[in-house]
Amino acid sequence: MAGNPPHAEAALSTTAPSLPPDDVGRLVRRLYGIEGAVTPLAGERDQNCRIETADGTRYVVKIGNPSEPVPVVDFQIAALEHIARASARLPVPRVVRTLDGQARAATVLPDGRRCTVRMLSYLDGIQIRETPRTAAQRRAMGTLLAQLDHALQGFTHPAATHDLLWNVAAAHRLVDKLDGITDASRRALAGAFMRRFIDHVLPRLGSVRAQVIHNDYHLYNVLVAPGDHERIVGIIDFGDMLHAPLVGEVATAAAFHMTGNPDPFEGPAQFVGAYHAALPLAAVEQEIVADLMATRHLITVLISEWRAARYPENRAYIMRHNPAAWEALAQMADMSRNEARDRLLTEARKGTANEQHH
Fold first, then answer.
1. Which residue in 20, 105, 209, 306 has its CB near the most CB atoms, within 10 A?
2. pLDDT per residue over 21-67, tens digit each?
3. Of 203, 138, 160, 167, residue with least CA distance to 295
4. CA–CA separation, 351 vs 358, rounded Å?
5. Amino acid 120: pLDDT
6. Exposed, middle or buried: residue 327 (CB in 10 Å: 0-12, 13-18, 19+)?
7. What is the pLDDT of residues 282-304, one digit of tens each?
8. 3-class secondary-structure state, position 284
9. Other beta carbons less than 10 A from residue 164's beta carbon
10. pLDDT of 117 above 50
């Protein structure tokens, strides 16, 4: 197996900028003419800060990873502007222009590295991970993701096909990371799912739909109203977006609903059922969506174990999805591919059956 393209790993291998809040404040004042209090926000590759003005207006400023290619930043900006035009009701951040009308700017870090600066509107809401999970909430998430993907249909950009390790459709590129798993039983578990991907998923990927997808639609990146945890008010973090198989979008998002129920498939089935009702999955996509859900957990453990060893200071953030991913792989290891597929599609198929009866 070939290794990863160098730029695919670069953004995960280069430390994020870490300007002091006062410097961030001055930068925002100079570029945007906005005066406000600066609060750091979590991030893996970029430095993200919330800016709050005296009248309570909030923004997010993103100081990009120096290794992030500028065309990729332009791609993310163009996608947000496309969504705003295609479906103005979707709760996504809006791009804020600089004083001279630009969608992004540049700055030089104290160590001499150049990086991009951009600003987005701040979406108020509670991360779904802070709320109790319900079936209605999962279905709302599935429906909204289908609406987002529908809005992104037909959107293209030269940088949309950039390399990204967080692409379930390219999991085979992470084969060399299996050696980094020190526990022998876990290494064997991950190896079995890697073989499943290479044998059963990879040959089918040429025949599925591909488009620009969010690719990171999980419980940290979806916001709900404080008084109504089933009303979604924000979709954030478009940093993992790329042009890839649409079924990978569904599988990636469904993977995060496996915890919290005695039956690990109950939550994902509710999510996939709602997505499928709004944007139906084709037969070949239904055939591999459960395999790709397992693949998302596989790449989570491979990337997080590799990165935590390299960046122990950011270990807690890097490893936040790791325990659930190992648990999910262990749960799926005991069943056949067909059983996993059928359990994941329980609600999607129920909906199809109901339609046939009407």
1. 306
2. 999 999 999 999 999 999 999 887 899 999 999 999 999 999 999 99
3. 167
4. 11
5. 98
6. middle
7. 999 999 999 999 999 999 999 99
8. helix
9. 20
10. yes
* Signed CA dihedral, 239, 307, 167, 113: sign only: positive
Rounded Cα distance between 15 and 47, Å, is 10
Amino acid code (one letter) for 312: P
Element (H, E) at 96: strand 95-96
Contact 190, 330 (CB under 8 A): no
In contact, 253 and 165? CB cutoff 8 Å:
no
Q: Which of 168, 216, 159, 169 is nearest to 45 (CA)?
A: 216
At CA 205, angle to CA 220 and CA 301, rounded to 5?
Answer: 40
Residue 160 near residue 75 (C-beta atoms within 8 A): yes
Dmax (CA) of the chain: 66
| Amino acid in position 335 | M
In angstroms, the CA 293 to CA 332 distance is 10
The answer to whether 96 touches 120, Cβ cutoff 8 Å, is: yes
3-state secondary structure of 71: helix
Element (H, E) at 47: strand 47-52
For residues 271 and 142, is the Cβ–Cβ distance under 8 A? Answer: yes
Query: CA dihedral defined by 79, 84, 90, 91, rounded to 10 degrees?
Result: 80
Query: Confidence class of residue 9 from pLDDT cuts 50, 70 and 90?
Result: low
Mean pLDDT over each residue of the chain, to the nearest integer = 93
